[in-house]
Design a protein that fits this description.
- Helix 2 crosses helix 3, helix 4 packs across helix 11 and helix 5 packs across helix 6.
- It is built from eleven helices and 19 strands.
- By secondary structure, it is an alpha+beta fold.
- The strands form five sheets. Strands 3-2-1-9-10-19 form a six-stranded mixed sheet, sandwiched between helices. The protein has a five-stranded mixed sheet with strand order 13-12-11-17-18, with helices on both faces.
- 36% of the residues lie in helices and 29% in strands.
Amino acid sequence: MGIDLGTANTLVYVSGKGIVLQEPSVIALDQEQKTPLEVGTAAKNMLGKTPANVIAIRPLKEGVIADLEATEMMLQEFIRKVYQGNNPLFQPRIVIGIPSGVTEVERKAVIDAASIGTREVYLIEEPIAAAIGAGLPVTEPTGNMIIDIGGGTTEVAVLSLQGTVLSKSVRVAGDKLTEAIMQYMKKMHNLIVGERTAENIKINIGSAYPLENEEEPVMEVRGLHLLSGLPRTVKIQGGEVRECMVEPLAIIVDAVKQTLEDTPPELAADIIDRGIMLAGGGALLRGLDTLISHETGIVCHIAPDPLSCVVLGAGKALENFQELNRVFSNSSSSM
């Protein structure tokens, strides 16, 4: 079983079946009983709308586990969903994608969260998993550059021969772009909007680079007016959204430039020939590939299925366990 335990979404891949689960990384808990009420999409729909005795939370922050107990419960519920309530007849071997910049404590938290009811837990760094999932030739002696922009972290890595030559992890990704929109709405329009509304703005009219031959999209946004405290609707343009995301996007572009500057010359030549691969949910932001190409001078490709790259890579690594055994960064046997 391959798992992409992401800040925003959790995906599960089962050998022979493919991706069997793709849900938001959200859990709703009964605060008195400390038991899970809902996970995934149903729990996400509760965000900001729960009564006093129920709390809906995202237990992962910036790519790492912030609430171990809630993460354990969420993972167990997802695994139960995959097996439709029946315990598997065997204890599955699990491969989980983790950000490249995590500490030993954070690694142990992931292993602990996944170890319940499993035989072995293997960790694979997200850039390598994303590269395998995107179909890059990671086993060959050629330089491959991948940028995996998730919800909590952006991973930039240069890979060759099943290993990471160098990598950079910045805790600026989709969530920080959403936060920037929330701050902008508050500052410029005196409108308080929730996380879900800001995310919808980003998805519907957000862009990283001016769109050629296209009119700037316009969207109606509803929220609470800061001065009157009453609900209000305002219209915003795509250009405004792009401007307010400039700062977090600049951090991501700087991480790419720094990685390229440190890349050995032979591998840099390969990257110029092959281009840069974009993966993760952030790759779906309109114009991001154009922005990175414009800033680096290197052509940028978006992976065929950017949201699923990490989990597909984790699944492929599991299915080709002997051939790709060097890609795993750490393992734990619970036997």
